[in-house]
Amino acid sequence: MENSFLAFVEDSIKKNWDLDALTDYKGATLQYKDVARKIEKLHILLAESGINPGDKVALCGRNSSHWGVAFLAILTYGAVAVPILHEFKADNIQNIVNHSDARLLFVGDVVWESLNEAEMPSLEGIILMTDFTLLVCRSKQLEFAREHLNEMFGKKFPRNFRKEHVSYRKDKPEELAIINYTSGTTSFSKGVMLPYRSLWSNTAFATEMLHLAPGSRVISILPMAHMYGLAFEFIYEICSGCHVYFLTRMPSPKIIFQAFADIKPHIVISVPLIIEKIIKKNVLPKLETLKMKILFRLPIINEKIGSTLRDYIVQAFGGNFFEVIIGGAAFNQDVERLLRDIDFPYTVGYGMTECGPIICYEDWRRYKPGTCGKAAPRMEVKIDSSDPENLVGEILARGDNVMLGYYKNPEATAQAIDKEGWLHTGDLGTMDKDGNVTIRGRSKNMLLGPSGQNIYPEEIEEKINNLPYVCENIVIQQSDNKLAALIYPDFDEAYANGLTPADIERVMEENRTAVNAELPAYSQIARVKIYPEEFEKTPKKSIKRFLYQDVK
């Protein structure tokens, strides 16, 4: 096949015309022919309202079949899609709409309730995703197009819309397809410009590596406004004739667990936090004699226990998948060791929005535990270090997946991509002689010890997370240069075991002593602060560190 992303989409729609394509969990289903018909209607709406190829069209809402249709329609028409996370605050959404120069905005009903259209003066219209209702209209052309949409569609296709009518434009490799605004762990978002070669290369990678067949079932859990979820829970599946289920609600461990049981997906794509929570909340309680923390600390897991545990975990994810792919954030090493010991089919990948997203991956059968795989096809990876195997350095990436740059921000682009085309990821890592990359932390997160030692808070946090009654934590450096651990305890487990708030404080202090026994003097924890609620997170479920830089 030619290196055309939209050819992937067109061919799949035609080949899988009568198959189920998109389902809102416990709601309606669209077949591929329904998706094609809706795309065509949106093409008419865009054309008749004066939207030109290259114009920006934003979309913001929970994952749903309507979101997927709107996204595909924008790209196949020739406009530039600007997906915006529905979890962003209203002023953040409005700023992104304005910064991106979007002419139209497709919204979900929940998002619309919080927005103020007066703060987005350049928008010509705001359209409800579900039925294309005009919520705001500042264009006579748009108003006319919406009022006469069905009539115009009928005139264009008087004898019904058929698969031979599906003919999408040919995209060019360097043509801008998506502007994806990073949530990141800094307070300022940047618009990542992804060209069609990045979309094509990521889709080709998934096609080469994952081999899902038409009709395979997949659950869309991760937000589609983030490239990890968009590329590997939606785009690849659509291009492969799969059936994508959208949860259309907050993906809590309980809802996800039920969806896995009902849908039985053929592949599971997720972030570490969701995997860890499902195992902790839905699997380990069934093994009444086993405590998670004890289990993780055993050097060897009993074979019978291991087999039982594997069966439970497989069933927790629906029992029908060939692989679990984990990415988006660092994976807890003890959880990983547990999965490895019970021969669970998982692999850990590595990517970032700026690569649309994939950088490293390895098939689970060849995957080296603790790493995030090797450079993906059409990508090069190197470590900026004199001794990449032993000395930590910044991870650099180059290849077809890399972005064009940051929208309207040439300074940030020049800082990120050097003259030789290497993207400076800001992540720190090592690489073994076989090319397997191990992430050691974020360069932005690295702390300096009292004598200039490099301290990687993620490594300490991982140790703390495996101690009793710890749900999640972050390690920060205080104004006196001493380290503090901010801990959100597992209150449910603690109270179920009869602990009082005073007991929890005592346990956390014991945890501090325990972790310090494993750490060199320069990276020991000086104090613990208990947080009453979960830390605020990015869509990849990374804690927004910039919000927690001081112990109150």
Task: Output the keywords.
552 residues; 4-stranded mixed β-sheet; GMP Synthetase, Chain A, domain 3; globular; single chain; Rossmann fold; 35% helix; 3 domains; 18 helices; alpha/beta; 5-stranded mixed β-sheet
Tell how many strands the DSSP assignment holds.
Answer: 27
Pick out the low-confidence regions: none
The level-1 CATH class of the largest domain? Alpha Beta
Q: Could you name the CATH homologous superfamily of the largest domain?
A: ANL, N-terminal domain
Give the domain tally. Answer: 3
Annotation field: number of helices: 18
How much beta, percentage-wise?
A: 15-25%
What CATH calls the topology of the largest domain is Rossmann fold
Write down the Rg.
24 Å
Q: Which shape, going by the Cα principal axes?
A: globular
Q: Percentage of helical residues?
A: 25-40%
Mean pLDDT figure: 90
Biggest sheet strand line-up: 4-3-5-6-7
Question: Mind summarizing the main beta sheet?
Answer: 5 strands, mixed
CATH architecture of the largest domain: 3-Layer(aba) Sandwich
Distance between the ends: 58 Å
- Could you say which structural class the secondary elements and strand pairing correspond to? alpha/beta
GO cellular component, one term: membrane
Keywords: ATP-binding, Nucleotide-binding
Protein name: AMP-binding protein
Catalytic activity: a long-chain fatty acid + ATP + CoA = a long-chain fatty acyl-CoA + AMP + diphosphate
